[in-house]
């Protein structure tokens, strides 16, 4: 019983984190990309395609899913080569080219050769693949964070890849994944004209809440033994991918090592189903809130990870609606208000003085002198804030700056003394008002002053 | 679980965050989340708790947990950061940690041949500094799990909320954990645990000073109870809490002020039960100490000095030559008046001029727009000398000497150059760095009324 629950926790955590190849929804897009790659593998066709969608919409997952579809076929294994580049890692074309050489296992061939241009170098690499027999291997280039490659000097890499793919000098397929919807506009004209203009858009799948609930259940339920076997079977094929740059096949979630007690699983799965059975239940309304904040599966997965990690044989043997609403509540608080409530009364007073200044002067910038004068006027007539020295207030002001509640106006840095450096407020008045209301044991006079600048 | 219990005992009032941490990263052989963002005010125990948590976890789990704890203030470039992380993580197999760029770093991590159950944690303190590094560092750190295939978790520790980390390329949202600020009663509880240390401090002081009746005094210190200390802390927080909630600052100041609190008791002038007299003795001390928060004076036993008054003392004791004083005053006037008003302020006919100026400015001055609030403006040496001659009644013709006196004032950091410091001539521009109170004090010494010449006050 104890061990069973720990097994479930481990299993769910690992599946949430490392199931890189299971794609929910997007069947049409997946088919589209799969066919493209299949044609490259089987017929040696060249092509290019951009996969566009917001962060966490499943672009990488889609590519991985397609790869795992294709990898069992011997044709694919023998005829293709994978080259994986990431815009965050391969920050210039030199790094990219080096990595391409390594991934194509041509370091030895290219060693000691001097190339006049990038194009020559790439052509050499591709030519190396034509080894004796009629047809050379196809190369699949996967460019993650594609938009970042557009910032490379002259877009040389992109130009050459698209050029090869368009003129069919060698069979290559270029797939770019990006979260920038305007990515086409980033391409230079000569690059754009060589791109096939195949674009696949991915937007979060669960376009209705029903599906979202189903997904919740799917992600928390434990599969049957037979299903587990199937998954293990599918995943074992991933080993045949031999790419150093790609890591997902090496650490993919593998259910083979888990053994579950069937009775226990039944009651567990049942518990999950019951949780969201009732349309008006607390659990469903928590999920509704979550859905309204962010529909994406990646967001849901992080939420579930937090939920699952709370499982504990002694204290928390199953998932409850209270737990869920507790975690959802952490997403709805405003961290700025929370932080404001942790300031000292003095620091809060300075923020209030800043608010008054900004309201009166229509968000004019301010410096410490101006704010301190305003605060000192209040402090003089108050009972709680009397006798606060200038130096201490200056420290408080600096803390506000450190917390980035106020931001220095960049053009005033330099030789200005810190008392006079101009700042602006990085808060809304609403956030401050919320904080004044939430603040524990705030002296009444301060709360009143916050409401009205008249002392 | 043991780790949780142990730390929960050691650090009161941190049960919730400890629970969350244990859930997320406290189970060996389980998957870690890709990234965690921890934020909260200074002194809420972020650094201390995390370090203790890792130490305890590693002790129980030596081979299966690798932790890198790096402070981004020390590792101020991405290269140093990467190399420091690798040094921690790859430990003994650190054949070569030279890292050129992010690509290298990720490559080295990938090459770590690890058993699948080994966990890696990279903990980055003062993580807001990551924003100053190359744009690809932060987004990539947040998805190291995807990039390296290791069971790795990156923890960002900062005083800033996550929204301050958003940059051009959006980032993956990590799990956030908030370290709430301590309430007043929680602060009291934590400070109260410091009782033994405060007691020891007094004993140490007595042993150092060696007064005649040392033994009786030590006996008195011995009789101090926890309850008595808590009462003192209540008084102490009554004064301090509104200005400072930083625990480490409060802890140090509370210890220091406790020695003052005990003084009348050790002298035998006040009995330990006479709380109201004790309050009267300490109230003044506490107030002066309040003006000193964050501005620690080295020795605990040096009498606390009042900071604002301190400035005036400096001003009074400053042995400037007579003309030097006038030069400083002139510089102040030049800094805070616009040159347009020079003529009106310095024409011969005193009485009339002041009337007129008053009329002009009487209603127009808005407090916030006063020059003395906006800060000093720069002025040329020519203008400084002109004002100097205008406010000085006698005629002096020693420009050369005056120029060297200006240099002296610059060396004393009373003036600073804005431009032209290499060859000082009439067009070099200067700025006055002292405040109004300071100048008023200087001008009192030479019997001069500086307010009369400031357009703010006319
Ligand atoms: N349609 C989906 N089916 C299955 N999992 C999904 C889907 N969409 C998102 N996810 C999950 O969300 C997380 C992020 O997905 P993925 O890495 O594929 O996003 P991405 O589009 O590549 O994002 P980025 O632009 O940041 O690279 C993964 O954990 C993935 O499992
Ligand atoms: N719950 C607690 N119990 C006991 N001591 C605590 C507790 N919380 C904080 N402290 C003490 O407060 C001091 C400051 O803590 P620490 O340096 O960890 O804060 P921090 O959150 O890292 O601050 P910063 O953001 O400035 O780095 C330490 O001496 C620590 O021991
Ligand atoms: Mg991706
Ligand atoms: Mg810290």
From TrEMBL, chain A:
It is found in: Nucleus. Keywords: DNA replication, DNA-binding, Nucleus. Signal peptide: none annotated. The keyword Nucleus applies. Residues 45-205 form the AAA+ ATPase domain. Component of ORC, a complex composed of at least 6 subunits: ORC1, ORC2, ORC3, ORC4, ORC5 and ORC6. ORC is regulated in a cell-cycle dependent manner. It is sequentially assembled at the exit from anaphase of mitosis and disassembled as cells enter S phase. Interacts with DBF4. Interacts with POLQ. This is Origin recognition complex subunit 4. The gene is LOC105227305.
From TrEMBL, chain B:
This is Origin recognition complex subunit 5. Pfam families: AAA_16, ORC5_C, ORC5_lid. SUPFAM superfamilies: P-loop containing nucleoside triphosphate hydrolases. The keyword Glycoprotein does not apply. It comes from Bactrocera dorsalis. It comes from the Eukaryota. Belongs to the ORC5 family. The keyword Cell wall biogenesis/degradation does not apply. Keywords: ATP-binding, DNA replication, Nucleotide-binding, Nucleus. Residues 32-183 form the AAA+ ATPase domain. Its main location: nucleus. It is found in: Nucleus.
């Amino acid at each position: 019983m104890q061990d069973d629950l720990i097994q479930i926790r481990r299993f769910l955590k690992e599946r949430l984190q490392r199931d890189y190849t299971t794609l929910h929804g997007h069947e049409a897009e997946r088919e589209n990309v799969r066919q493209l790659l299949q044609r490259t593998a089987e017929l040696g066709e060249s092509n290019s395609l951009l996969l566009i969608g917001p962060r966490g919409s499943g672009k990488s997952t889609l590519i991985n899913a397609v790869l795992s579809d294709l990898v069992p076929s011997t044709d694919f294994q023998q005829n293709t080569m994978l080259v994986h580049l990431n815009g965050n890692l391969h920050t210039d074309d030199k790094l990219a080219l080096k990595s391409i050489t390594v991934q194509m296992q041509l370091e030895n061939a290219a060693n000691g050769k001097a190339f006049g241009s990038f194009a020559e170098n790439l052509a050499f690499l591709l030519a190396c693949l034509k080894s004796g027999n009629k047809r050379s291997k196809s190369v699949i280039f996967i460019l993650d964070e594609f938009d970042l490659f557009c910032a490379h000097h002259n877009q040389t890499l992109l130009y050459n890849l698209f050029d090869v793919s368009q003129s069919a000098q060698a069979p290559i397929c270029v797939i770019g994944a990006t979260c920038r919807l305007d990515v086409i506009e980033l391409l230079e004209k000569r690059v754009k004209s060589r791109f096939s203009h195949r674009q696949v858009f991915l937007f979060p799948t669960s376009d209705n809440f029903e599906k979202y609930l189903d997904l919740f259940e799917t992600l928390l339920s434990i599969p049957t033994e037979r299903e587990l076997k199937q998954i293990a079977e599918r995943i074992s094929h991933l080993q045949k991918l031999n790419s150093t740059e790609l890591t997902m096949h090496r650490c993919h979630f593998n259910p083979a090592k888990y053994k579950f007690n069937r009775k226990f699983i039944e009651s567990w799965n049942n518990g999950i189903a019951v949780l969201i059975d009732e349309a008006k239940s607390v659990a469903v309304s928590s999920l509704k809130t979550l859905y309204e904040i962010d529909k994406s599966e990646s967001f849901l997965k992080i939420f579930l990870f937090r939920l699952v990690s709370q499982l504990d044989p002694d204290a928390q043997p199953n998932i409850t609606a209270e737990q869920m609403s507790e975690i959802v509540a952490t997403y709805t608080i405003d961290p700025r208000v929370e932080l404001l409530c942790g300031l000292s009364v003095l620091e809060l007073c300075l923020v209030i003085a800043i608010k008054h200044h900004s309201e009166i002067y229509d968000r004019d910038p301010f410096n410490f002198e101006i704010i301190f004068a305003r605060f000192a006027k209040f402090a003089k007539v108050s009972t709680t804030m009397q006798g606060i020295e200038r130096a201490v207030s200056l420290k408080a002001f600096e803390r506000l700056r450190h917390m980035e509640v106020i931001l220095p106006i960049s053009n005033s840095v330099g030789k200005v003394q810190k008392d006079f450096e101009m700042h602006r407020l990085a808060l809304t008045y609403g956030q401050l008002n919320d904080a004044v209301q939430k603040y524990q044991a705030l002296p009444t006079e301060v709360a009143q002053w916050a409401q009205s600048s008249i002392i | 679980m043991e780790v949780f219990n142990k730390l929960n005992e050691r650090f009161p009032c941190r049960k919730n965050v400890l629970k969350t941490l244990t859930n997320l990263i406290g189970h060996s052989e389980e998957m870690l989340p890709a990234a965690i963002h921890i934020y909260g005010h200074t002194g809420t125990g972020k650094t201390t708790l995390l370090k203790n948590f890792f130490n305890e976890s590693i002790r129980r789990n030596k081979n299966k947990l690798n932790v890198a704890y790096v402070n981004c203030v020390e590792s101020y470039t991405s290269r140093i950061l990467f190399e420091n992380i690798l040094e921690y993580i790859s430990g003994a197999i650190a054949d070569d940690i030279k890292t050129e760029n992010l690509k290298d770093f990720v490559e080295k991590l990938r090459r770590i041949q690890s058993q699948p159950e080994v966990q890696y944690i990279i903990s980055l303190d003062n993580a807001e500094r990551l924003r100053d590094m190359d744009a690809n560092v932060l987004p990539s750190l947040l998805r190291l799990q995807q990039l390296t295939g290791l069971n790795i978790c990156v923890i960002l520790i900062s005083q800033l909320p996550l929204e301050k980390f958003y940059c051009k390329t959006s980032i993956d949202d990590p799990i956030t954990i908030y370290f709430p600020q301590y309430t007043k009663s929680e602060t009291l509880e934590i400070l109260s645990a410091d009782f033994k240390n405060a007691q020891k401090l007094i004993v140490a002081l007595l042993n150092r000073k060696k007064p005649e009746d040392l033994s009786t005094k030590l006996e008195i210190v011995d009789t101090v109870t926890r309850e008595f200390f808590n009462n003192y802390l209540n008084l102490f927080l009554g004064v301090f809490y509104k200005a400072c909630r930083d625990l480490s600052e409060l802890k140090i100041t509370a210890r220091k002020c406790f020695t003052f609190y005990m003084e009348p008791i050790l002298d035998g002038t006040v009995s330990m039960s006479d709380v109201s007299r004790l309050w009267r003795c300490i109230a003044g001390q506490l107030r002066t100490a309040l003006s000193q928060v964050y501005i620690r004076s080295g020795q605990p036993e040096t009498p606390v000095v009042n900071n604002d008054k301190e400035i005036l003392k400096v001003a009074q004791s400053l042995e400037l030559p007579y003309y030097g004083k006038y030069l400083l005053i002139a510089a102040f006037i030049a800094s805070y008046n616009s040159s347009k008003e020079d003529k009106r302020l310095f024409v011969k006919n005193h009485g009339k001029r002041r009337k007129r100026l008053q009329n002009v400015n009487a209603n127009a001055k808005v407090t916030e727009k006063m020059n003395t609030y906006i800060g000093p403006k720069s002025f040329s040496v020519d203008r400084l000398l002109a004002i100097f001659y205008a406010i000085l009644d006698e005629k002096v013709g020693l420009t050369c000497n005056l120029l060297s006196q200006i240099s002296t004032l610059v060396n004393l950091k009373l003036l600073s150059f804005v431009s032209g410091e290499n060859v000082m001539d009439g067009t070099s521009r200067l700025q006055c760095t002292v405040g109004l109170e300071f100048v008023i004090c200087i001008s009192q010494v030479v019997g001069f009324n500086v307010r009369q010449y400031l357009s703010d006050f006319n």
